[in-house]
Amino acid sequence: AKEHGRNCYQFYTAAMHEHAQARRQLEGALHKALSNQEFSIFYQPIISVDGQHIGSEALLRWHNKELGSVPPDKFIPICEELGLIITIGEWVLYQACSQAKAWCDRIQQSFFVTVNVSSIQFQRADMAQVIGRVLQETGLASHCLTIEITETVLADNSQNILHQLKTLRAMGVELAIDDFGTGYSSLSYLKRFPLSKLKIDRAFIRDLPDDLEDRALVKAIISMAGNLNLTVVAEGVETQPQLDFLRTLQCDYSQGYLHSKPIPALEFEDWLTEHVV
Ligand code: C2E
Ligand code: CA
Ligand code: CA
Ligand code: CA
């Protein structure tokens, strides 16, 4: 038994060692990823239910020679821990805004781009100014930019966050609460922060239109959002029946594989050509 226990111990330390090594490799690669130009941005369409208005979410992608393509759910938390998300996030913002500027000029109607901003980025006191400067440098109109934040940003109880969000809204930038419904106290946030859009997490959309609980929840969220003057986006819409159901509830926008997966900028241009005049 003792022998066995020892083997177990050795097994675990070996596994832990390997884990730590893999992690160090990721960290090392991430430190150099931006200057090595390993990042790119994919865009996923967000479409109003009447098909009249179109936007796109900017989603970061990382491809490294040794590691291959690493999914954002895996590398972004590490970038946040290492503080790298501050520089990388600013790069995403700049790229997405200059890209959107070109698309806005082309489409003429109200095209918008949404950019995910981490709570770590909002810890710096001048985040609103950083965003303002990017808008100025790229020439993108402020109402064409939506900043997506999660509850983690709002859970930070500092006056600074509230002040920055108010500054952004005063500049004309839209604010969306992302992954709505997955956190703890979302309802109080809706009252306290100057939000303009609400994105229903795809966990609530997946089993529509059949699941009775999800039907009731999504219906309640959309009706509440309407009363609070929030524009609603349903995430993770994959099927026509899901979209049809969301239409009957007068959900404002939908996003998901039904329309398109996130795609590179050039492909997104083709998509625009096909779907917009
Ligand atoms: P998110 O902000 O909730 O982004 C939506 C995610 O859902 C994306 O995953 C997208 O590819 C995926 N998705 C879209 N439609 C569907 C669908 O119909 N079905 C399914 N199953 N999935 C769908 P992705 O690109 O892997 O990004 C994962 C997360 O990484 C994002 O979740 C966001 O939290 C984070 N992320 C991505 N880019 C950035 C960034 O530039 N900055 C920050 N801070 N976070 C980012
Ligand atoms: Ca998002
Ligand atoms: Ca989301
Ligand atoms: Ca998410």
Automatic annotation (TrEMBL):
Keyword list, A-Z: c-di-GMP, Membrane, Signal, Transmembrane, Transmembrane helix
One term of GO molecular function: cyclic-guanylate-specific phosphodiesterase activity
Domain EAL: 23-276
A biological process term (GO) from this entry: cellular response to nitric oxide
Domain of life: Bacteria
Keyword S-adenosyl-L-methionine in record: no
Protein name: cyclic-guanylate-specific phosphodiesterase
Keyword Transmembrane helix (UniProt): yes
